[in-house]
Specification:
- The protein is an alpha+beta fold.
- Strand 2 and strand 3 form a beta hairpin.
- The mean pLDDT is 80.
- The chain contains 3 helices and 7 strands, in the order H-H-H-E-E-E-E-E-E-E.
- Among the domains are: 36 residues; 47 residues, no CATH class.
- This is Transformation system protein.
- Keywords: Signal.
Length: 135
């Protein structure tokens, strides 16, 4: 029995020495990398650093609003029976808003008229959060 234990020890030692000798190439590779890192490197002088363009400077944004049209002065927010909410104020039929008079209130639009112009304001669909404040 003692012979088997000694034999196992010898086989185990042979295997360990074999794996350590096989890793010698890998160890030498990492030693070379460590040696290259530890060598001093040449850097730029402060004057050379000032001459280099900064790659992280942000570019100026181009205004894309120049091609947009002006917003409508009147926005229809709500229609409740014969009342409409235009620009945060409530109006009825025949009420005046600046130079326009409300002539028709329909299911989803309002018609504003004056002597020369007619404007149709439509409700914007898609808003499920409708708040109505009536004073």
């Amino acid at each position: 029995m003692g012979y088997k234990i000694n034999m196992k020890k010898y086989i185990f030692l042979i295997l360990i020495s074999y794996t350590l000798s096989a890793d010698e190439a890998t160890i030498n590779k990492y030693m070379d990398i460590t040696k290259n890192i530890s060598q001093s490197r040449q850097t730029l002088s402060p004057s050379e650093l000032k001459d280099i363009k900064d790659p992280f400077v942000s570019q100026k944004k181009i205004d894309q609003d120049t091609n947009e049209t002006a917003q409508d002065p009147y926005v229809l927010y709500a229609i409740v029976q014969n009342k409409v909410k235009i620009n945060q104020s409530w109006y009825g039929i025949k009420d005046t808003i600046d130079i326009y008079t409300i002539s028709h209130i329909q299911k989803d639009s309002v018609i504003l008229q004056n002597q020369t112009q007619t404007i149709k304001l439509n409700l914007k669909k898609g808003s499920s959060n409708v708040l109505i404040n009536y004073k």
